[in-house]
Amino acid sequence: MYSTVTGDEVRLDPTEEGREEVHDSQMRVALFTGAYNHIADGVSLTLNRLVEFLERHGVNVMVFAPTVDDPPIQHHGTLAAVSSISVPRRPEYRFSLGLSRSARQKLASFEPTILHIATPDLLGRAALAYGRKHDIPIVSSYHTHFSSYLKYYHLTAFEGTLWSYLRWFYGHCEHIYVPSPSMADVLRNHGISDRLLYWPRGVDTSRFNPAMRSLDWRKQLGVNDDEVVVSLVSRLVWEKGLSVFVDVVQRLEQMGVAHRTMVVGDGPARTDLEQQLPNAIFTGYLADESLARAYASSDVFLFPSQTETFGNVTLEAMASGVPTVCADATGSNALVESGVTGYLAPPTDVDTFFESVHRLIVDPKLRSTMSHAAAERARQYAWDSVLNRMLCYYRDIQKGSRATRPAHRKSVAVRPRVGSPA
Q1: Across the chain, what does the average pLDDT equal?
Q2: How many angstroms separate the CA atoms of 71 and 92, rounded?
Q3: Do residues 235 and 110 share a domain?
């Protein structure tokens, strides 16, 4: 069975009957992504989990992605490195330049039965062309809400062009995997509505849970047992809503609201943040058990980002039993039940963010109630269940008749057009 996203609902549809059974070991998935091991972000960590899961179930996978000399992630699976350049002013990001002759040879020798494109960049476009030429099923997962980043780079004039390209690109994909109904609504509003399938992200509740809370660790940071810690866990880039975070914390300090601020993560905005929030605790980048301990040792999680497609950090905070105050935007608004597990606020409404955080700081009973509710809701997102959903989608593609393959997709593809909604 697979789940289509219709409006605010996720509906399960039965797989068509009468298809030939395909064993997982017969699948050969070529995965194309702009982030896999050269940067530790939500996209790369999610895709590494997916590859590990697929290989554990006998699926053959080859990953085509950029890399660096000393990558921060010990990646899973076979990685075929592709040519790339660093993004100007953001060297931690890489821009893939497509498929070189050697990469194409590796792809041809691998003989993929499915092409999974995670990034619609030059590499993704080359993979799309390869799949159409060789009549290989093409699927795509939507990880980055590209249009929401444009304003941070003063590129909003190109939003219409971007959406035209995305309509054309995804028009050639048999499946488009979206992380939330709200993200599906955004795509649908911009003319991308065919074959949207639900693929949320997961959380490791054996690692991220309230039991990881450590008063000793808090004391090492200079935090007393009775102090309320307001935390942020994120890559420290301004498009994560950091200006709102700063405004809220500064207002708390100006009004004398007793609390401690903790920022977990690293990135190009860190130096400016440290100057603007001199009383905050900056832990730097944390991972694994250290990260889980930081979440659980917090009391309120403040995450104003409006550029998420899902909100991995929101889910990890919830699993850790931390009430969350997040932007009412794609990603977090599919996870946070406002008034029950935390609060949602309009993305740039500092007043509402402040009021929600203040309410949680001064009311320990409310924090406790929301803590239990958040952890309970997060348990619905176990990783194995989430990743198995993708395997089921692949099986459905492999069983499909020729009539549902790319030749059919070509006849309904939406190409860029003048005057289309942006």
Answers
A1: 85
A2: 11
A3: no
